[in-house]
Design a protein that fits this description.
alpha/beta; single chain; 21% strand; globular; SUA5_domain; Threonylcarbamoyl-AMP synthase
Length: 206
């Protein structure tokens, strides 16, 4: 049964955030809110977490997982980024964008696209997510909480607790959450390719 963590959207309780971070370090898979929509998250190197996310979402090994980072300095540890791309990404973060970029050696091989050796990265503009990332001290390995056969991602913590009670270990609910997935921009070739149009304005990359 999933543990339910209820926090204030603007001033999340430090003790609760600390409990969630500790659970993640211990291998928990959690559902948490972002500026785009809810996501599934686990510790960066958790093979079990990855497999559980794949199972929940029915994903194959070509799916790009996302490293949700606290800030640009952290993001830069996990992806290679040239000056032109740097400027474009920096100008759009934090925000509802996911960027696909070549992975560095800091990214476990199991997270990289098997052929392209790329990974998704993003910096969310969400108080609760940022508090969790600050407490965790490392990126969250994440994927949009979009269930198989459904077109809309889940956006209500209580509904997630009800439907995924025996699938995830915890649900972090702040009541405030985006309602659409991120806009995904692939920069792996050096040029912007919009892979998915979502919450972030895609026009700046067209």
């Amino acid at each position: 049964m999933a543990k339910y963590y209820d926090v204030h959207p603007d001033n999340p309780q430090p003790r609760t955030i600390s409990q969630v971070a500790a659970a993640i370090r211990d291998g928990a898979l959690i559902a948490y809110p972002t500026d785009s929509c809810y996501a599934l998250g686990c510790r960066l190197g958790s093979r079990d977490g990855i497999e559980r996310i794949r199972t929940v979402r029915h994903l194959d090994d070509r799916h790009h997982f996302t490293l949700v980072c606290q800030d640009f300095a952290q993001l830069g540890q996990f992806v290679r980024i040239d000056n032109d791309v740097f400027r474009a990404v920096k100008a759009s973060t934090p925000g509802s964008y996911t960027f696909i970029l070549p992975a560095t050696k800091e990214v476990p091989r199991m997270l990289q696209h098997p052929k392209k050796k790329t990974v998704g990265v993003r910096i969310p503009d969400h108080v609760v997510t940022q508090a969790l990332l600050a407490e965790l001290g490392e990126p969250l390995l994440s994927s949009t909480l979009l269930l198989p056969g459904e077109e809309e991602p889940m956006t209500q913590g209580w509904e997630i607790k009800d439907r995924l009670d025996h699938v995830v270990d915890g649900v972090l609910d702040s009541g405030e959450c985006g309602t659409g997935p991120t806009t995904v921009v692939d920069f792996s070739s050096g040029e912007a390719e919009i892979v998915r149009r979502g919450a972030g304005d895609p026009s700046r990359f067209e």
